[in-house]
Amino acid sequence: MMEMNCASSENDSKVLNLTEKNETKKSDDDNEPSECKIQKTDIPENKDSLENGQEVEETIEIKIIFSKKKYDVQISPNATVATLKKHLQGLLSVPESMQKLMFKGLLQDDQTLSSAGVVKGTKIMLVGSTLIDVLAVSSVTKQDVAEMEKASTLKEPLCQQKIHKKVLDKGTPEDVMPGIKNVKEALPPAPLSGMLNKNGGKVRLTFKLEADQLWLSTKERTEKLPMSSIKNVISESIEGHEEYHILGLQLGPTEASRYWIYWVPAQYVDAIKDAVLGKWQYF
Q1: What is the Cα–Cα distance from 103 to 83, expressed in whole angstroms?
Q2: Transmembrane stretches, by residue range (predicted)?
Q3: What is the dihedral sign for C-alpha 95, 99, 101, 107?
Q4: Element (H, E) at 74
Q5: Cα–Cα distance, 191 to 204 (Å, whole number)
Q6: Radius of gyration of the chain from Cα atoms?
Q7: Mean pLDDT, to the nearest integer, of 58-78?
Q8: Which residues neighbour 121 within 8 Å (Cβ) at sequence distance 6 or greater?
Q9: Distance (Å, whole) CA 272 – CA 98
Q10: CB-based burial of residue 209 (10 Å sphere; 0-12 exposed, 13-18 middle, 19+ buried)?
Q11: CATH architecture for segment(s) 60-128
Q12: To the nearest 5 percent, what fractions of the chain are helix, strand and coil?
């Protein structure tokens, strides 16, 4: 009997020990962190974050044609035309306000490139002028600036100011177009010609309204000016020849950047202002 009790005790002890081990193991399992669950939750979130907030977008290579040269530009197809203009300003030094981008017509700033049909390899024409080119057209000297400032202080009529008088004193050009005072007419289909600049050289104005440009031509060159690059247009009739005006195109931020044109037929002056500045100028 004694041996049976001992065996029973020994068996009970083994069962007890096994139970304690199982309970201990179960307790340990209950207290163990659920790392797998955390990982399973974190990975999809990070993946979504990468998909939805991806910083590097797919880009396409397009070609910008400017001044008879081609430039390869990498840009997202989801970028707007305004964004492209900012990029081109840094690349080509053409101010955004002076840029016209042409692809199947004039591209609007709020358009995305993809919505405009721009794809890889698309050629876009840039029409515009750098500030250096624009100011070079006006070719204003320091002496001219000083004379204009002096005249402005004295409030002299333009035709009496020295800078203008030296051109007007030569008389009307032989090929000047007929002028009519106190009459307003629309721009003629042909360019306005027979006018002079401050150096006495011949000037011709061609209005390319479909491209929103004014072509200013001299014997030496033709400058294609975006209408938006012309900040202001002023004019004044010529004393003794009121059928003609002196016209100033302000090509830069200050009055010193005005490009002066003489013997402009009076009947076209308002139409020139309308074409360049828009009719809103009167309101």
Answers
A1: 16
A2: none
A3: positive
A4: strand 69-75
A5: 7
A6: 39
A7: 91
A8: 61, 62, 63
A9: 19
A10: exposed
A11: Roll (3.10)
A12: 40, 25, 30
Output the six-digit token pair for 221. 């060159």
Give the Cα separation of 104 and 217 in Å (integer): 27
For the chain, helix (H) and strand (E) counts, in that order, are: 7, 11
CA distances (Å), 98 to each of 26, 31, 146, 223, in order? 77, 70, 28, 13
Q: Which two tokens stand for residue 201?
A: 């050289």
- Provide the b/e sequence for 12-27 (b: ≥16 CB within 10 Å): eeeeeeeeeeeeeeee
Location of structure tokens 């059928």: 243
Smallest CA-to-CA distance from 72 within 86, 82, 87 is with 87
CATH of domain 132-282: 2.30.29.30
Beta carbons within 8 Å of 77's beta carbon, 6+ residues apart: 58, 59, 60, 112, 113, 114, 118, 119
- What's the confidence (pLDDT) of residue 257? 85
Q: What is the dihedral of CA 156, 159, 161, 167, to 10 degrees?
A: 180
pLDDT digits (tens, 9 = 90+) for 195-216: 999 989 999 999 998 888 999 9
The residue with tokens 């002079």 is 196
CA-wise closest residue to 268 among 183, 189, 210: 183
Domain ranges of the chain: 60-128, 132-282
**CA 179 to each of CA 3, 183, 201, 246, 273: distance values in angstroms, whole numbers, following the listed order:** 141, 9, 20, 12, 17
Which residues are within 8 A (CB) of 70 and not within 5 positions of it... i.e. 6 or more apart?
63, 64, 123
**pTM for the structure as a whole:** 0.49
Task: Supply the mean pLDDT for the chain.
Answer: 78
